Amino acid sequence: MSLSFMTVLILVLMLLSVNTLIIVQALTEEAVQNVKEQIDVSVYFQNDVTEEEILEVRSYVDSFPEVTEVTYIETDEVLAQFRETHKENPDILASLDELGENPLGPTMIIKTREPGEYENIITALGVPEYEHIIEAKTFADTEKAIDKIGIITKQVEQAVLVLSILFTVIAFFVIFNTIRVAIYTQRIEIGIKKLVGATNWFVRGPYIVESILFSLFSMVFAGVIIWFAIQFLDPYIAVILDSQQFLTNYFRSNILVLVGSQFFAVLALTIITSGLAMRRYLRV
Amino acid sequence: MISLKGASKQYTKHSVGIENVNLHVDAGEFVSVVGQSGTGKTTLVKLLIAEEKPTSGVVEIGGWDISRISQQDIPLLRRQIGVIFQDFKLLEKKTVEENVAFALQVAGESPRRIRDVVPRVLDIVGLGHKVERYPNQLSGGEQQRVAIARALVHRPKILVADEPTGNLDAINTHEIMEILKKINDFGTTIMLVTHNREIVNQLRKRVITLHGGKIVVDEEQGKYQL
């Protein structure tokens, strides 16, 4: 096919666009997951709370299916963490020494599956029987951040979806026209083959083989470019996400699904477009 | 062998290919179809190779009813009828040998049979020494001989020739006509569509004259008369 180079080039560009979207989505998901993991609800107990009361609250919180982790920090540890956090502020440390005793109560850190579920936990802990033992809850501080993440995630997902549809439609028309021009140049040959007794499938055969070859070549070219790109990007991503070789691992663990689905999508696209483009010339 | 009963082909309301044509050609006949441009000669050829279907009436060739033939059967019909055209219709990217072999490949013939048949047919048309040439390396007469060889590989009982000498000089025209006569002598029915007065008059065979899509003259040992 005279325009075979153009066809492969367009397919490679389409595959690069699709994989860019896949990378953006993977990175967004990972970033959101990272932020979600950093969000929790801290429940500060009164200083005079008893061990039994804490255990009761803990078992009450544990009974919620949305709760994934509950960490209990004893008063001594809370104090140690407070000192560590404020080690560069001698005034605070001096005030603490002045008190002579530990003014901080124990703390319970609760994590849920989704940020939106924190509100349920906070509401549940707002019951009157726990009012006298719980001094404060820090959820209010992170509520806005959680809402913002929810909005950003939704917006990114919508943008990725719109871009994916747009790229697919553009790719379809570009490839359809590229193949149509290529087949137009061979319309006389197709007509002659039909006149000497070739069946439609006999004429289509070489184009189907070409479609398979185009799909293979474009997958290989795009694969090589993507491999170099992720090798280049991974060190930068490691700094932001605190995850070594994130993209390499992502592509390795999803290689079969990614390669398989993209190969068959490209193959279907080329076979369908060449079939549509050839249809009129087969009516001889 | 070839039979048209009240056959008409109308393309649009004001464009008629042929109109109410009745015609019968027996096995082994050599029939020339003559007429001015636009009188329905090409439509007749297109109907015989199922490139078009009649709007009404019946068109039969070699046992096939063109008005009822299915899309799947059209390739089978074309493998049983040899056709040659004014513009040769050769595959430019294939050699002489490959062009002839292609007609057998589409029919699913074995490579062994192809290797056996192709050189013999090319020898018959006198091109056994030019098998590796491409169409653009041949003269017009030679290209038409390749087309004849391709049409003959299936040993067709009918050969339809649509203006086969239209693009050829006098010498090549004579050579092609000699080959066609030889093929007819072996028993193949030939329908020659032409507007070459000289070759029709020299043939002294049956002549059918078309005018306005209708048969106006049908004579045994006729002459070109318009």
UniProtKB/TrEMBL annotation, chain B:
Protein location: Cell membrane
Primary location class: membrane
An annotated Gene Ontology molecular function: transmembrane transporter activity
Topology of the protein relative to the lipid bilayer: Peripheral membrane protein
GO terms for cellular component: plasma membrane
Family label: Belongs to the ABC transporter superfamily.
Protein name listed in UniProt: Cell division ATP-binding protein FtsE
Source organism per UniProt: Candidatus Magasanikbacteria bacterium CG10_big_fil_rev_8_21_14_0_10_43_6
